[in-house]
Here is the input.
Amino acid sequence: MRASPYIGLHIVIAILALLPFVLPNSFYMDLAIRMAINAVIVLGLNLLIGFAGQISLGHAGFLGIGAYASAVLPTHFNLHPLLAMGAGAALAGLLAALVARPIFRLKGNYLAMATLGLGIILNIALRNEAAWTGGPDGMPIPALGLAGFELNGDRQWYWVVAALLAVSVWASLNLIDSPFGRALRALHGSEVAARVVGVDVARYKLAIFVMSAVFASLMGSVTAHYIGFVTPGVADFFHSIELVTMVVIGGMASVYGSLIGAVLLTALPQALATFEGWETVVFGAILMLSMIFLPRGLVPTLAARFGRGV
Amino acid sequence: MLAQFLQFLFSGITVGATYALAALGFTLIYNASNVINFAQGEFIMLGGMLAVFFAQSGLPLPAAMLLAILVPAGVGVLIEKLAIEPVKGAETVSLIIITIGASLVIRGLAAVGFGKGTFSLPAFSGETPIDVLGATLMPQSLWVLGVTAAAVGALWYFFNYSLAGKAMLATACNRMAAQLVGIDTNGVLFLSFALSAGMGALGGILIAPLTLTAYDVGVMLGLKGFVAAVLGGLGNGLGAVVGGLLVGLIEALGAGYISSAYKDAIPFVLILLILFFMPRGLFGARLTERV
Here is the structure.
């Protein structure tokens, strides 16, 4: 039982290592990179939503902070892209820490409202401050590099992102089995009971919120550098919803569920492109159907069916 | 000065009335099922778009409006029967995703059916503005306020004097107890979806002559209605109406005096500030958590 989560980790690493040799062309390579990026974001978000039980409907806002830090700071202030990435993460973490205390006194739908509001305000600010952000049209992003070496081409990006993903899976697995992870699960179960047994509820909520915000901001920067361009769409309400959907469809509080959710929902729009004009309808219907028939998400439902804990 | 202030005031309460109707919709469904219906905004959109559609296809305006209320109400009932009833007691996040899925389906169908253009509905009684102390008031604004007031009044009467209304209130207080005294709580759920969809559609029809309508107007209107419902304290009917008017007013004043570019952000800044200091909104009940 103790060793079982790491079997999964080995499988993930094996798949990641073999994938570039199997993928037929750069279209699939690009898809794989975007899946891996989303998977890292979703892992962070699942720690917050699935394990700690705190919903966030504004997470794309933090992604936006990272993406725009990587765009604005090098362009307007000549900052090195890596420093800009760090600054974005610091800003996202700081903002998360600042709002965490008042926000996490809220529960359920009130918390949903507050995080949703936060995301929308960030998105509107990005749209309006056109002098800095290029407004609704967005702005280009300089290349990411260090000491003369510049990241470019699908292959290089793939290995960077795959390494990030492997480390994130390993870190998440360790985290949930640590005292920190147990405290999170305790406060998900019952906040009052967790407090009674000595869990500093407010501090843990703050820590996990800041952590997932920093995760999101870093990956926002990575996405932006990879695509080479950023628009306010990265931070909009619908993107936040997409991320939450990845968490829930894969399976709340399931590390491997996060991966499956990210993979499926990143691929879905591609698969739906053939429906010409009906994409939104089909996408919505799939969301509804999967929640109605698999309310606990894919991985936990399947794991329960086959009688094994994942 | 005064004229300008009055102008903002008029546009504020007019839009606020739509938010109030949307907020009432959120409140009704929340009380019956603890679900936040993220498809609420799509009912507003459907109301406006269907009214345009039926009016253009030759129906007299009142008939077009009636149909534009009844069809969304039917859609609301359909959502409840197909997607909400089967998953009773699911986690908040799952329910949020289901209703968001429903909103995507409705918005997608509207985009396919009506196209992605913008449409306008003729004003109910002419476009000649009324001059009030230097500010102009559109006759349509009076329609919006009057009909909204009538709808709220009718709802108040329904909840206080009819058996079905009282059954809904009882279910909101305690579903288990309501079931035990023989109230058909599934019927209540059915009715609350029909009512709140109809209410949202009514708001959408009333505001359509003033603001134009398109397949995607529901998102922002719905979210602001949600802000209004939370502002008033989720589950509080009077709070929803007051919250709606307040959100509309503050948005209009903020857009007028502070920044029109940040108009859409104002309701969300407002709700964050309110929630920081009053975690259950203005009129929300205090709850104690049982372990």
Observations:
- The two ends of chain B are 56 Å apart (CA to CA).
